[in-house]
From TrEMBL:
Motif (GXGXXG): 281-286
GO biological process terms, semicolon-separated: lipid metabolic process; positive regulation of ceramide biosynthetic process
Name of the protein described by the UniProt record: phospholipase A2
Organism: Paramuricea clavata (Red gorgonian)
SMART domains registered for this protein in UniProt: ANK
Catalytic activity of the protein: a 1,2-diacyl-sn-glycero-3-phosphocholine + H2O = a 1-acyl-sn-glycero-3-phosphocholine + a fatty acid + H(+)
């Protein structure tokens, strides 16, 4: 029998809930086996969750009397999950079968809830019944999108349960119609075969895509065709690349393993050369940058701030650079970006600035200045747009001799803020002020208008710094040479054919349509060229580094489907990152090469 409080929760009658609670309704009285807070979670009655939690903060921890599930286990939507987590729900609470809320969301095939839990720090390798990890469970229920999501967030693709079964083994013996897709999802990122002495199924041999054919319309088919047959051996480098190796990286409480008194990278200590990291712009595709950096950390077994002396970024890359500087680990930044899209990309373009600025202030602090942390040296690009042509501005966390000069009284334009006066959140807002997506920050626009790939700009600045600013550096920081440059892109989208770029004086009605299409295509070409981060700009950086004898590597994963700057769909983003992980696995030798030089 349902109590009036249960019924009010079932129909999302918040006023009724409030009235009942004020008049003594017992919220600790179960209906069958669920309490009112469980009913509110089950029926997506988010308006009812708020007064119940306000009345008793501990109710988010109460367990139902049958399954032992908390309200978080009962939630059905991302909004309910976020509401309960904000109220203090335990993200790792286990039910009677030792299953966390993440296990339950996987069982119910709720991708949005899965991503929401992972982006709030849920343990991607939490053990349930029979020591099944979330990845084991996702394979069992046959949900390829959830499998990819868990891989992207670092799920251990070679984990074994009490029956000594790996996710690949479970996929091989599965009868799910998505069996082949799941096998591709696992094997293309490096899962290892079963031991042939203990397993007689096809999972005991190296993977070949042709053994598990995909229908033409099935996700992953185009990517698998591009790879052909590839063999992954048990003793492959996959062992160190396998997702879930976060334990190899030691983080401090601040998250990034920083030793603020150190002031130099591992490479600098050993080779007396600086190391530089360059991060392209690209909006939410900054998740690709994070995915590569996560893998680099796993191979190097060191936090990024111990690997690089200089970090330069544009737009999303600049925000990431500032995040790394201020103690945010790469796993945290991945979680942050998945939350960012839901909190900031609200409404229609151009998006309101307030959520963006509030988000940045929460992460960096409202009063933190750029020079509060001086190592590694960070540059975030911006475009000063109160003039034509616009000027490149570099937000810095360190000073140079030029900062001490008095501004020219006869200058046409007012001076820009010096690093010691520049707020971090405003620097992040400035480098991320992408036209048509966000309003300008005063006269500052996204640096991608000038330097979407900041590699050459960083190298040029470093040369100038060595020449002019180095004499004022500390004794241990007298390096005058860059030894390594690692450049990362935010993905190469598929090429799109253009049929008409002609803009002419119309002589007939049919010409008007041609002009419209031609003008649109021409604008797209100009924008693409202005914000280019591939092609000639990459070739120039590579040639320049070769000329000055600098080790240079670039990674820019191929994306097989277009992903917009402000993409919010979890499935699209998860698939993008899975494709990125496949790309990384195939080029793991590059990461190994970079990691060896850095450490």
């Amino acid at each position: 029998m349902e109590t009036p409080l249960h019924v009010a929760c079932m129909v999302n009658n918040a006023k009724g809930v409030q009235l009942l609670l004020e008049n003594g309704a017992d919220m600790n009285l179960p209906s069958q086996y669920a309490y009112p807070i469980h009913s509110a979670a089950k029926y997506n009655s988010n308006d009812c969750v708020k007064p119940i939690v306000k009345f008793d903060e501990q109710c988010v921890h109460v367990k139902d009397t049958k399954y032992g599930g908390t309200p978080l286990h009962w939630a059905k939507t991302r909004q309910t999950v976020e509401l309960l987590l904000a109220a203090g729900a335990d993200i790792e609470a286990g039910n009677n079968e030792c299953e966390t809320p993440l296990h339950i969301m996987i069982k119910r095939k709720r991708l949005q809830c899965v991503v929401c839990l992972l982006s709030h720090g849920a343990d991607v390798n939490a053990l349930g019944m029979e020591n099944d990890t979330p990845l084991h469970m996702a394979v069992k229920v046959g949900d390829v999108n959830v499998v990819k999501a868990l891989i992207v967030f670092g799920g251990d693709i070679n984990a074994v349960n009490k029956k000594n079964e790996t996710p690949r083994h479970l996929a091989t013996v599965s009868k799910s119609r998505f069996r082949n897709q799941i096998i591709h999802a696992l094997c293309l990122v490096g899962t290892t075969p079963c031991d042939p002495r203990k397993c007689n199924y096809q999972c005991n041999v190296p993977f070949k895509p042709s053994t598990y054919p995909l229908a033409a319309a099935e996700p992953g088919n185009e990517l698998s065709k591009a790879r052909g047959d590839v063999s992954v051996k048990l003793d492959d480098v996959a062992k160190i690349m396998a997702a879930g190796a976060h334990a190899n990286v030691k983080y401090t409480k601040s998250g990034a393993g920083r030793n603020e008194n150190d002031g130099q990278s591992i490479m600098k200590k050993k080779r007396k050369d600086d190391s530089a990291l360059c991060l392209d712009g690209g909006g939410i595709r900054g998740l690709i940058l994070i995915q590569v950096l996560l893998n680099l950390e796993r191979v190097a077994k060191q936090p990024l701030v111990k690997l690089f002396d200089w970090i330069a970024g544009t737009g999303t890359g600049g925000i990431l650079a500032l995040g790394l500087l201020h103690g945010k680990s790469t796993p945290y930044l991945q979680q942050l970006y998945f939350r960012f899209k839901d909190e900031v990309f609200v409404g229609a373009r151009p998006y309101p600035s307030e959520p963006f600025e509030k988000f940045l202030q929460q992460e960096f602090g409202a009063d933190t200045i750029m020079t509060s942390i001086g190592y590694p040296r960070v540059l975030a690009t911006g475009a000063v747009s109160d003039r034509i042509p616009p000027a490149l501005h570099l937000f810095r966390n360190f000073s140079i001799p030029e900062d001490d000069k008095e501004p020219d009284e006869n200058a046409k334009f007012p001076p820009l803020s010096k690093p010691k006066d520049q707020l971090v959140w405003r620097a992040a807002r400035g480098t991320g002020a992408t036209p048509t997506y966000f309003r300008a920050l005063g006269r500052m626009l996204d640096g991608g208008l000038i330097a979407n790939n900041p590699t050459m700009d960083l190298i040029s600045f470093m040369h100038s710094f060595y020449k002019n600013a180095q004499p004022k550096a500390p004794p241990h920081d007298t390096c005058k040479k860059v030894g390594l440059v690692f450049s990362l892109g935010t993905g190469v989208p598929p090429e799109v054919p253009v049929t008409n770029i002609d803009v002419l004086r119309p002589t007939s009605v049919s010409d008007v349509a041609k002009i419209a299409f031609g003008a649109q295509a021409l604008v797209e070409i100009l924008v693409e060229q202005a914000t280019s981060s591939k092609g000639a700009v990459v070739d120039r950086a590579a040639s320049w580094c070769e000329m000055i004898d600098v080790f240079y590597r670039r990674m820019n994963p191929q994306i097989y489907s277009g992903v917009s700057f402000d993409e919010k769909d979890d499935q699209v983003l998860v698939n993008m990152l899975w494709e990125c992980q496949v790309f990384i696995f195939e080029r793991r030798h590059i990461l190994k090469e970079v990691a060896d030089r850095l450490t």
